[in-house]
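Batch manifest, entry 17 of 40.
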Amino acid sequence: MRETSLHGTGLGLRRELLPDLMAGIPDAIDFLELAPENWLDMGGAHRRALRHVAERRPIAAHGLSLNLGGHAPLDEIFLKRVKRFLDEYRIELFTEHLSWCGDNGHLYDLLPIPFTGDAVRHVAGRIRRTQDILERRIAIENASYYVAAPIAEMDEIAFIRAVLEEADCGLHLDVNNVYVNSINFGFDPCNFINAMPAERVVYMHMAGHWREAEDLIIDTHGANVIEPVWNLLDHAYRRIGVRPTLLERDFNIPPLDELLPELLRIRALQAQATEFRHVA
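Output type: structure tokens
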């Protein structure tokens, strides 16, 4: 299995940002991320723009619809198309959500998987098959959720660790998702990060969210990152080490210049954490 050579700070490749990126990719952006589902059948000017940016920055792929936790057969035809796409654009890293999103059709939501031993074996088998087809070690992302699965033989930490071990895959640590779940379900987000196996963390996400109530946060990727999530990223770097980190902005997308301060803050935290670990 191949390992990723990504580093630094990244930004999601959204069509709204293409004119700015075509004019010149800022130094603050070390890589870009896309969802293969949104680009596989894209042609014309958008495809030419993708080729333009892919020649200038590495690309990471973050899937939306693989349905790793579902019971419908794994879509191997789709995965083979994804592999050709990854190869075409020299994309080393593919990540997916640790969730299920399909049941005789796409549900357009990421739903929690029951934290059971059977579910560990089921999901891990699908991840291993995905890795075989893609010929890459993938990483799974800890998902945000709002209703706990009705059956649980273990907590989320134990479930994630068991899947990682059984599937022999990487962890895509979404720091905002940890924070969102910590508010929605009442746990310490630092303890959650401390319990993640650092050696399996290959990638991180940062994002903003919407606070619906004191005890309910919705993961929207449509706002600026708040201070507690910045603090949690700093903790993650110091506990786990610096990993390539992407700023997610999927809605209410401002001009590229307005996203640069958050990218530069990620970069600054990476530099501080590297120095901290070097001194320590």
